[in-house]
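User: Hey, quick favor. My workstation is busy. Could you predict this chain's structure for me?
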Amino acid sequence: AMASMVDALVHRGPDERGEAALPGCAMGHARLRILDLSTGQQPMADVAHRYWIVFNGEIYNFRELRDELERKGRAFRTSSDTEVVINAYDEWGRGCLDRFRGMFAFALWDTQSKTLFAARDLFGEKPLYYAAGRGGAFLVASELRALLAARLTDRTLDLQSVDAYLALGYVPPERTIWEGVGTLPPAHALTWRDGRVDVAPYWQPSFGRRSITLPEAAEELRAATARAVKRQMIADVPVGAFLSGGLDSSTVVALMQQQSVHPVKTFSVGFGTMINELPYARAVARRYGTEHHEIDLGEIDAPAMARRVAEVYDEPFADTSSIPTFLVAQYARRYVTVVLSGDGGDEMFGGYSRYVALQRSQAIRMATPQWLLLRAGSRLLRDRWGRLAERSQIAGIAARANDLWERNLMMHTVIAAPERRRLRGAANGYDAGAYEPSADVSGLDRAFDFDVRVYLAGDILTKVDRAAMANSLETRAPFLDRDVAELALSLPATLKVSDGERKRVMRAAFEELWPEEIRDRPKHGFGSPVAQWLRGPAMRALVDDAAAPSSRLRRLLPGLSAADLQRGNYASWTLLMLGLWLDAHEVTV
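Assistant: No problem, here it is.
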């Protein structure tokens, strides 16, 4: 079983593989060599061979931690961060997690107490799944396909997770698509001993706790982000950066180039005339003299790429940016093994346009009939009075929900509950109330809370990890460095979004680093032109297959009609990607 599990993860670590059979525990690892290329093999044991570990990710401050541990008398045989994790756990127990600055998922076996300890990073950059298997086995792996490869668990769809996927376009981070298989949530640790499993958080986001001015916050942010970028550039292999031409990735590239004596390798992607941010990326590359590489996908084989990402993702996944992310990762891997990205910047600093609408809706209380009248007026006068349409959207949010958390969730919803009930032919659906923040989180922070705890882990970071690691490429996100993130979360929401301006503190901190062309450009999501694809003849065969009465999708969703797949919108794409996923993974429905 262990050999099959490692085989299933070879794309994540094509450079080396290792297995260890220990009393009470078997471990396997597929390694992508980043640090300590000669002596970092895993599974790895400490000097005394009490602890064994399999570890995915990077601890960026491992050298400082190693110095501290050596002063305490700890011995090391390698130069790797993996051995630092073992010694840190032995020294500080689960308290070591608060000392790590990095992204990680690891499982550590204590041969003395026969205890397994596993942990995952703050925001879920690295995945970790677990299940109780047949015969008393307990399984832990980086991807669901590795758990399934052991053939010790059943493949039974979790229908609540199917409903959650239809609502959000992804399976939320505390669930999996399979019954009986769990995922360790971000910022949680797991302990297994004598068949008993305990899962508990070791960190939680804390919002808006500080009273601080914009200039003070900007100064702190500049220093913290520069430190994060510097330590995330550590590697014994080539490092580059994704460059979209947006504010987040441009900031990361600027700070990288300031700290590098060689031109940073940057990578960008465009879709011809449909979605083309390449000129903005070029402006940043010119300003900093990067070694710039770009790929204009133009007319790609959209059906083939849709099928490919359905194979790559272990769970149904509808985010349209998975396709360009996969392709730019594939392209970048020809030049580098590690890339830094701007992921997390929007969630940490208020980058989404919906935050403006949500903030403006705070003071609005409106009944549904009033909103319907306003919406009718906005449609009638849209060409003359564009602002009325925006006011109608804001009023619509206010009319249908009172709390900013509910309003934000409504804006995230792809297929509403009544439609999901029709599609599934069932009344019971997933309970979004599980994501509601505590009462001490107020105002716009109630929207930020969902995006940090659910959307970031379930969508953004899942997208990047699976797309990049399918190409054996490691991605790193400086804005999710613990010091940067805790600073960002502690700031008052008004330092992020106010009077229609987004990312206020980021602008104050980094605007001087940005070329003129990108400073005031409107935000564009890093997506694919799916509306054009779905209307084109190339996708028609996929849509027709998914809509066929005998398709797996129709068997899972008996209320589905051909019209649901032919609307050419994100809901249609979400349904199509579910159908492709069911076929790619040969799910019995």
